[in-house]
Amino acid sequence: MSGIYISGPITNVDHYMERFCDAEKRLKEQGYSVMNPARILKCMPPDTTYKEFMQMSITMLKMCDQIYMLKGWEKSCGANQEYGYALACDMIIEREV
């Protein structure tokens, strides 16, 4: 599968789901196949650890050939990990304007 993965801050961020879903909608309207990790997080068991969530997120990112960085990603540990992976794999990196 090729697609675009949405990356951005989630932990301690109000309205993160709205931000991720708005980005998902915009990207789908542009014809992208979108991976939205925030949707998956809502389905995870409450005892899912941060490490487990990040392992799942990187697995989703591996299925894509692009990453879309939401504003504020620079302050997110997880988004920085995803960005680093994207850089290492020479993925196309898009940024929210």
Give an overview in words.
α4 (77-88) links the parallel β3 and β4. The longest helix is centred in the N-terminal third of the chain and has 14 residues, at 16-29. The relative contact order is 0.25. α3 (50-62) packs parallel to α4 (77-88). A 4-stranded parallel beta sheet has the order 2-1-3-4, with helices on both faces. The protein is globular and about 35 Å long. The N and C termini lie far apart (26 Å). With 97 residues, it is α/β, with parallel strands linked by helices. It contains 4 helices and 4 strands; from the N terminus they run βαβααβαβ.
Number of strands: 4
**What portion of residues belong to β-strands?**
5-15%
Q: What's the arrangement of strands in the largest beta sheet?
A: 2-1-3-4
Task: Tell me the span between the first and last alpha carbons.
Answer: 26 Å
Instruction: Provide the helix percentage.
Output: 40-55%
Radius of gyration: 12 Å
Q: Indicate the structural class.
A: alpha/beta
